[in-house]
Batch of 2 targets.
Target 1
Amino acid sequence: MQVKLNGKRVSFREGETILELTKRKGIEIPTLCYHPSFEPESRCRLCVVEIDGKLVTSCDTKIRNSMDILTDSKKVMKSRKIGKRLIEEREKRFKPVQDKNPVIIDHSKCILCGNCIKACNIIQNVHAIGEKGKGIETKVSAPFDLGLENSPCTFCGQCTHVCNCDAIRERDDSKKLMTTLKDKKKHVVVQTAPSIRASLGELFGMPHGSLVTGKMITAMRKVGFDMIFDTDFGADMTTYEETYEFLERLKNGGPFPMFTSCCPAWVRFVEYYYPGFIKNVSTAKPPIEMFGVVAKNFYAKNTGINPKNVVVVAVVPCTAKKFEIERPEMKNYGLKNVDITLTTREIGAILKKKKIDFKKLKESKFDNPLGESSGGGAIYGVTGGVLETILRAANCALGEKTIKIEFKSIRGLKGIREATVKIGGKNVKVAVAHGLSNIRKILELIKSGKKKYHFVEMMACPGGCIGGGGQPKSLDKDILKKRSSALYCQDRKLKIRIANNNPVLIEFYKEVVKKPLSKKAHELLHAEHKKRLLKF
């Protein structure tokens, strides 16, 4: 089967669209609304081509035998020029965004392709945004145009992955960072989340799943941070408290299942949609918040720095973390645990602006003492990783002579996974769910009594943090697999693989909170969740 493509005979595949063929042949056709994850709707009409004198959109036109396709004829170029002009006219109708939400919608850049709405509705099943208005006044917004903060939006940021126009994106906090770095009174420390080291290299042309821990640390030094630490230390803290919380529930008979608390988008989701399950969510603070507590209540004291002058910056894969750090319960003694968050994309943009040649950077190591972490902390970034590291820690806390380290039965990218594992000689039913659509499914199964578990890990983004809303844009499962492999590789490389054995964590407990779940631990390391009501 052949067609004529710009005067040359080429073979095509059955069911292939013209756009798919041209991509395969290396012929560039402009697209704005097209995304391979969704059925094409040909809204922007920039991908038009000419067939037998007629213009058709290449994204949704299937190839038929003997077609004569022109991708750059005068008629095609004129049509694309008109299309671009119409988009520019739309941009003039709306003012640039002044939104302060973690995820913002910039109507001046939006072309109404609908991809963000599909991501919210189809991938996440949240339905927080839709089209409002008619004709040229149509725009994407939250219900009743009340703003995302008053909608059931979880700020997961999956919508940003499918926006080709940068119209829906994370709030840019890079200027705030640069202003802070110039303040000589401030001691600015940065913590890097587990998944960043498996994705940051992609922004600089490195292969997907490249483990760039050492280069990443060197890059942070060049940005100007005073100390470079590891969020994996905070992950060890979360593991430690959450493990003892779970063991206490096992001892007292519930309430079950216990849910993880480290994903802010999942927490916001349960607060809005399933408040009856709030009591099941662990109260242990998430890793970046745990780190912030230690930085301002242990590191500051031991280095003689006033905690008010310690600024904690977190580089994260997540847009919802921008919401999390503003929660009032993420404060201690009047100070926020974390002051600024930057997504992987934001820190990548900063490095590019500073013209730092990431590929050529030499490797360096995290600073002490908060650069010490376990392999369990490293795998927090992948779906199933939190559960796996808690299983390691639980058996260690119970004094098991032989501690199983790897739980491969709960690994992988299947949306919902379940297993029965041994903790202290007892059979414990556990499960993992990632992506809010799958979380909704498993919650309904639990609610109906069809499924019973002791412990469930919840992650709002597909793949967990490796597929977070602030990561390099991709919904490709193969890329997620490569990122997850990098984190498992990091885990295997580390001498300490169980959170309980982290020497700095042990020192913090001796000096500050004494033991897990103590009164002081609850004061500093735990936070309550609350039912949220919609404003409409």
Target 2
Amino acid sequence: MNLETFKFDIDADGIAHAIFDVPGRSMNTLTGKAVADIIAITREVATNDAIKGLVLSSGKASGFCAGADLGEMGDRAGGAEKTKKSVDELKKEQFDAGFSLNGTLRKLETCGKPVAVALNGLALGGGLEVALACHYRVAANDNPKLQFGLPEAKIGLLPGAGGTQRLPRLVGVQAALPLILQGESFSAEQAKSMGVVNELAPSSETVARAKAWVKANPKAKAPWDEKGYKVPGGVPHKSPGVGQVATMANMMLASKTYGNFPAQKNILSCIYEGIQVPIDAGLRIETRYFINTQQRPEAKAMIRSLFLSTQALSKGANRPAGYPQTEFKKVAVIGAGLMGAGIAYVQAKAGIPTVLVDVTQEAADKGKQYSVRLVEKDVSRGKLSKEKGDALLALITPTTDYNAVKGADLVVEAVFEDEGLKAKITQAAEAVLGDDAVYGTNTSTLPITGLAKASKRPANFIGIHFFSPVERMGLVEIINGKETSEATLAKAVDYVLAIRKTPIVVNDSRGFYTSRCFGTYTQEGLEMLSEGIKPAIIENVGRQAGMPMGALEVTDSVGLDTALKVGRATAKATGFDYNEAPLGKMMAWIVEDKGRVGRKAGKGFYDYNEQGKRDRLWPGLNDQIEVKIDECPPALKKELTNRILVRQAVEVARCFEEGVITDARDADIGSILAWGFAPFTGGCCSYVDLIWGIREFVAEADRLADKYGDRFRPNKLLRDMAARGEGFYDRFPPAGTKAKVAA
């Protein structure tokens, strides 16, 4: 055999040992070459009489296998390229390709010889599926990072190498469903208790234990190949019991996904159908559903954005090249309110000594108490030892003294959105900062170039926009001012990576990228309300469209007083009389007449309980709003969904045209992580490129503009892209790659 990704030998007892070790990579993945090697190994084990059994293991300290190579899979996802082949020929070709690993693992499982696997680290996705096809699994019990799981659903796919068939047959349908539908990972101990793993052993002994089992069990079979086998839980093949489980699961799935995620729907169907037939038929069913799922545009969008782009940006793909990496030995946070306190916590959690400055010692101490509460909660839940918690808190120094800022590599200012206050703090901090230190301002709307006028060194001045709550939100928006240097941008990216968050890079503009585009969702919800659409319909359709909250609830969270202020300011800048418009009158009434300013006051569009949780939509809305639409048939739901999502995507296009954002990856990841744009679409750009198609999107935006107003009207960029047949990833590709010019 000529193997490229495995090492192979046969010991004196006739036990073959195949060591998975992809050259040049820190982690094994199932590339096309790896699959070819597994096919060759299976053939050799099955046909070589000198081989009495097989043990699989990994040559990587990181683990056995992280699953399929998603770079390769992403290229194949989302629909086939144009071809002259017939539909039947194409389907056969797709099935044969999709079934290659699945069929091979079944051949390995039924080769008549015992097969065991030694798992020293993680086994995810296809890696776990390979392990499940072995007769015996030994896992390391001394590796705290070891994890197992089938996470394919998180990126729009379903397990395609036996996972939907073998895991339910091992642990039962009811136990397997959440693991596969939600992509949950589990530890070696959990795997042992469920029966996914047969034995636990120290890492150094896993291979020897696996070999010993192979030697002692020459006639091993998979449980489902034994006569009289029944699925755990008492559900035999062709039993109506699985139907009851599937019915309940289907109801729960619909309530959480609203039918937006094809992978979850297909997983449920695949398990329900496959568990009622022998496993060979079940594996063929799985492959058909796998291909169906893989060919959906949602799969391509989610693989590209939620895995490939997120991974690239989380490694600094948008960092300017040619600058040395910065190690942050000290960072100052000025402003110990909710945002500043959260920033101080994530810095300390990343091991960065942090100075937390405020105008009074009481305020600074209160800011540190935020970290104390988070640490105490983690310690009480066993997520953090008291010693590590104490060490984390010791890194935060609350103070009023700006001299404590001296020596900081970076300052993050996080005070109120007031230009005068920010200017005063800039000058106070720069008086003690070194020449190379970076000054970052955390602002969501104020232009960076204007704020930088207060700085003596605008080249070192940059926007670093966090999202609340800081400790839970994974994105940071970095904003270049007109004079921000590339060296400063490189340091800012290094900082975001150091605190283990994902950076996107944008250029200066009022509202930048995320706040500006996010605002269109709430604005459209308010437009619908002013049109007389029942509030509950607006909220339900927003969630069903894929947004994390309804538009009115989001507005409550931002603050109705803030929304009124922004609406008036925007209208004034554009010469529009907001106060006489139906929307302006409604907002003035609810804020100024009724004093309902949102969640912070416990009353806005919703009423809130004492814990600040949403209670109900405020019944008093009906006093001001004449409800003209109180039912939502499918056609109206589709119309409202398009209004919600298209409106946001049109604003994203305007940001590209104005140069606010320049990389489609940043736009997609920013839209998902910052404001929760429907994740199944892959983000705003992928929504246009893959879910609609550029020409169809422009036509729909024009239709909506004709019916509802020019806020939907496609800009020149979109029309030019449609004329050329270009998507956003063609016109604005990742940094370092060339733009494609479509015909």
